[in-house]
């Protein structure tokens, strides 16, 4: 979507020569607008003849939509789609606590009633628009929503809980068991993960939990399911709900982009909001997060039990649980790698006409609304025909939505805060329990050593190992059966287990031993810990910034190339045959991967 006005589909070079000739004739018009648009801070003509530029497209479309909304009179049909003019009573939202009550019971089925409608109330603004499919089991949605809305507050409470529990444990006011050379506490390993899970599940019920009062849109509670007149008006104004929402939260599964109504929600959002207000959470991520919490808690409790009854032999469980958790991790990450590849393929080949609609009578209505939104979003493009408007929407989804999904999903399986929380639940309870040794004569130096051992494991070494595992599992996705198993085992041992062993056991354990009696060893241990934490921060956070910078550089570099190419084509006054020859003389490196998905009529039109 190169010049930002919606003109910018990647041309299908095998299309008719008339398409290319028309695009070349319009090159002069596009080039003449380049300087004026660039002066307004808009990216224009970034290789629209070579490949789409989602960043340039998204900025301009967002500015166009805001400018049309604020300074011009909207088309009457679009006005009815994106505003509550004349029917402000329809603007309703539910409290988050109502949506998540009884473990998301509201998501059990789609059937609603007057009682479910009463769970919402008129509001001024909506904090989040929850977009989902009813075919997805309710527990996946519940886990996704509690992770998104309750996580930050739960972490704050857990920090206070951990500090308090550590002080009480160090004071000798909690039960202890004899382990190794000093007594260890038991409450950290027994209570930490369950308390964290309870805060995530029920944190909204706490009296100080501001998230419980968040106003969220859920179709079942905010659209009347029995009064057909109110239902029709509310459905027609789904775009208005989105325009009054601060954020769109997508509970993503593989059926999301196959359902017509959720696609329409995406269409309205792309027309009205910037993609940085869209959050996409695949349901597999929260499920793996809670499963990892459970595995870590079971490991800690069983280790504690064996240490008590077998006299310090609980450590024999560590290799067992490491093997089990590694197999679970490899399976989950391999599945996620294939899911992510499928997301990319589905976006690249997206077509609104292939979407499924439970009620076929709704299909013309949705098509008509999408076409109206596209005409208003791309005012400089003549989209009088609904078919061309739908093709424009297909192009918009293929170019803008991958960027939104990539920004939301990030470069890793889970954001760093979730990864750090999982591994903290594995090792932080041990660090809390060892504070009980201070009542049995453990020197402060030993306590500091143990803290410098557990912190880098939880916050750096394990997260970096997870990144390496994810990169490894995303390679050679074509392998199946025993070949895939061999690759996963060999790759994990050589690319993940061996580096983790060298850093976490050889280097860190050596410095940890030196720190027992040497100040230099303690200083080196602190320095290594800091470097490992910085490495984790760089790996998790830097790729996003680096990707944005490189994308911006590509757009800036492509502006001149696109403008020069358009001017050259216009000055050459190519005829139909020359246009075809130009198409044959293309650079193969700039071809789209799947040319069959690039429509021709919209390219000819612009």
Main traits of this protein?
606 residues, mainly alpha, six-stranded mixed sheet, two-stranded antiparallel ribbon, 22 helices, 8 strands, disordered N terminus
Give a written overview of the molecule.
With 606 residues, the protein is mainly alpha-helical. It contains 22 helices and eight strands. A six-stranded mixed sheet has the order 2-1-6-3-7-8, sandwiched between helices. A two-stranded antiparallel sheet has the order 4-5. Helix 7 (138-170) packs parallel to helix 13 (284-309) and helix 7 (138-170) packs parallel to helix 17. The longest helix has 54 residues, at 519-572. The radius of gyration is 28 Å and the shape is elongated. The relative contact order is 0.15.
Give a concise summary.
The chain has 606 residues and is mainly α. It is 64% helix and 5% strand.
How would the blueprint of this fold be written?
Blueprint: H1 17-25, H2 27-39, H3 54-71, H4 76-82, E1 92-95, H5 96-104, H6 114-117, E2 120-122, E3 128-131, H7 138-170, E4 176-179, E5 182-185, H8 187-202, E6 215-217, H9 219-222, H10 228-236, H11 238-243, E7 248-252, H12 260-272, E8 278-282, H13 284-309, H14 317-348, H15 363-377, H16 386-409, H17 416-434, H18 444-473, H19 481-514, H20 519-572, H21 576-584, H22 601-605
């Amino acid at each position: 979507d190169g010049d930002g006005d919606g003109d910018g589909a990647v041309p299908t070079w095998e299309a008719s020569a008339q398409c290319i000739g028309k695009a070349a004739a319009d090159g002069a018009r596009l080039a003449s607008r380049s300087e004026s648009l660039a002066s307004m801070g808009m990216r224009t003509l970034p290789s629209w003849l070579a490949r789409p530029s989602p960043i340039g497209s998204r900025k301009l479309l967002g500015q166009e939509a805001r400018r049309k909304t604020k300074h011009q009179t909207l088309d009457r049909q679009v006005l009815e789609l994106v505003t509550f003019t004349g029917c402000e009573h329809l603007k309703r939202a539910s409290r988050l606590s109502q949506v998540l009550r009884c473990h998301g019971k509201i998501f059990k089925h789609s059937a609603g009633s007057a009682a479910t409608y009463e769970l919402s109330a008129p509001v001024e603004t909506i904090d989040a628009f929850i977009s989902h499919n009813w075919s997805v089991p309710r527990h996946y949605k519940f886990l996704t929503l509690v992770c998104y809305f309750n996580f930050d507050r739960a972490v704050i409470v857990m920090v206070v809980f951990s500090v308090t529990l550590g002080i009480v444990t160090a004071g000798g006011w909690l039960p202890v068991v004899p382990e190794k050379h000093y007594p260890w506490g038991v409450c950290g390993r027994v209570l930490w993960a369950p308390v964290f899970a309870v805060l995530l599940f029920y944190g909204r019920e706490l009296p100080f939990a501001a998230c419980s009062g968040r106003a969220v849109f859920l179709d079942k509670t905010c659209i009347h399911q029995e009064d057909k007149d109110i239902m029709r008006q509310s459905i027609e104004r789904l775009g208005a709900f989105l325009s009054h929402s601060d954020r769109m939260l997508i509970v993503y599964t593989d059926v999301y982009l196959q359902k017509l109504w959720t696609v329409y929600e995406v269409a309205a959002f792309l027309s009205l909001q910037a993609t940085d207000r869209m959050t996409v959470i695949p349901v597999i991520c929260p499920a793996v997060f809670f499963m990892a919490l459970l595995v870590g808690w079971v490991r800690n409790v069983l280790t504690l039990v064996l240490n008590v009854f077998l006299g310090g032999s609980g450590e024999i469980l560590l290799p067992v649980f490491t093997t089990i958790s590694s197999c679970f991790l490899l399976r989950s990450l391999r599945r996620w790698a294939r899911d992510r590849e499928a997301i990319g393929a589905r976006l690249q080949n997206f077509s609104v006409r292939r979407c499924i609609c439970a009620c076929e009578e709704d299909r013309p209505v949705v098509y008509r609304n999408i076409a109206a939104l596209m005409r208003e979003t791309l005012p400089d493009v003549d989209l009088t025909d609904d078919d061309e408007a739908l093709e424009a929407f297909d192009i918009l989804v293929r170019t803008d939505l991958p960027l939104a999904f990539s920004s939301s999903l990030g470069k890793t399986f889970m954001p760093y805060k979730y990864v750090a929380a999982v591994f903290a639940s594995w090792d932080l309870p041990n660090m809390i329990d060892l504070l009980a040794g201070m009542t049995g004569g453990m020197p402060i130096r030993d306590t500091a050593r143990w803290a410098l051992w557990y912190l880098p494991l939880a916050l750096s070494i394990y997260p970096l190992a997870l990144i390496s595992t994810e990169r490894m599992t995303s390679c050679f996705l074509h392998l199946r059966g025993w070949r895939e198993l061999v690759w996963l085992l060999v790759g994990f041992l050589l690319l993940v287990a061996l580096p983790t062993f060298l850093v976490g056991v050889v280097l860190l354990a050596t410095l940890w031993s030196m720190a027992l009696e040497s100040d230099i060893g303690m200083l080196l241990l602190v320095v290594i810990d800091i470097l490992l934490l910085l490495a984790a921060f760089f790996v998790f956070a830097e790729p996003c910034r680096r990707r944005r910078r490189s994308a911006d550089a590509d757009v800036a570099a492509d502006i001149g190339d696109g403008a020069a190419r358009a001017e050259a084509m216009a000055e050459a006054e190519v005829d139909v045959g020359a246009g075809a020859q130009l198409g044959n003389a293309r650079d193969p490196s700039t071809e789209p991967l799947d040319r069959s998905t690039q429509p021709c009529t919209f390219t000819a039109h612009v």
